[in-house]
């Protein structure tokens, strides 16, 4: 039976250009009708379906084409290639399992907004590790430190964007990771690193002002006033993580920040 190029393309869900490329690479060999039109037979269909099978395993196209070129004639080579594809699939499965878990943790924090925004509770904070560049916060000026910061950026959402109350009325931006989920590679850094232990805290969520990116210290003002009114004193490092950003028409940013203020 003969098949036209459009029939093959529709059945496999690929373009006619891709089929012509496979011809060029000798994965298939099209015949020609008397009128000059290309046609494909059962063997071509079988070759293309086999290609699709291996491609669905995310085996690289060039390797599959080599397999069908006649330059390989050993089932052991093909088996080894499929085994490598399985190992890569397992690596991806583990990656996405961890990603789903990290997203779930992030969602739990976001779900607190409805009940805790603008309100206060007493709770035990998690132990975390905060890193920042002393001069640039999130983005160091030093090229070597920029590469260090890149590791933390790539590890999001396990890593959170965060801020820490500094001395006086200042606050600094940085990156935050749970002490439980930090890796040795991540912690081996030239950035300024601070381990913040679990502590009894006043816990709240604030909706930061529009100038948050320029004046992050403002988000601590109301919680600190709340502590002062009730006679509490800070005992340790106050910190927070950014939960989400709403963008109002006109590009105005409204940032929700979860804050932990250790007290005595």
UniProtKB/TrEMBL annotation:
GO terms for molecular function: DNA binding; DNA-binding transcription factor activity. Pfam families: MerR_1. Coiled coil: none annotated. SMART domains: HTH_MERR. Residues 2-70 form the HTH merR-type domain. Keywords: DNA-binding, Transcription, Transcription regulation. This is DNA-binding transcriptional regulator, MerR family. It comes from Lactonifactor longoviformis DSM 17459. The lineage of its organism: Bacteria, Bacillati, Bacillota, Clostridia, Eubacteriales.
């Amino acid at each position: 039976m003969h098949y036209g190029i459009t029939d093959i393309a529709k059945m496999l869900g690929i373009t006619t250009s891709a089929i012509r490329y496979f011809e060029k690479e000798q994965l298939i060999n099209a015949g020609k009708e008397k009128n000059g039109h290309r046609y494909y037979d059962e063997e071509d269909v079988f070759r293309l379906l086999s290609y699709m099978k291996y491609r669905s395993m995310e085996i690289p196209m060039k390797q599959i084409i080599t397999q069908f070129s006649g330059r390989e004639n050993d089932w052991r080579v093909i088996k080894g290639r499929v085994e490598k594809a399985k190992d890569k699939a397992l690596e991806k499965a583990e990656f996405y399992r961890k990603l789903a878990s990290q997203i779930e943790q992030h969602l739990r924090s976001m779900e607190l907004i409805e009940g805790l925004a603008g309100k206060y509770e007493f709770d035990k904070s998690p132990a975390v590790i905060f890193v920042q560049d002393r001069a640039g916060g999130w983005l160091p000026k030093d090229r070597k430190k920029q590469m260090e910061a890149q590791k933390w950026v790539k590890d999001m959402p396990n890593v959170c964007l965060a801020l820490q109350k500094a001395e006086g009325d200042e606050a600094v931006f940085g990156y935050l990771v749970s002490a439980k989920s930090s890796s040795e590679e991540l912690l081996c850094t030239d950035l300024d690193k601070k381990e913040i232990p679990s502590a009894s805290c006043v816990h709240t969520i604030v909706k930061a002002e529009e100038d948050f990116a320029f004046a992050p210290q403002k988000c601590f003002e109301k919680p600190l006033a709340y502590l002062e009114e009730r006679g509490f004193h800070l005992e340790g490092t106050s910190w927070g993580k950014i939960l989400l950003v709403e963008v109002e028409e006109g590009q105005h940013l409204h940032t929700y920040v979860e804050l932990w203020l250790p007290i005595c």
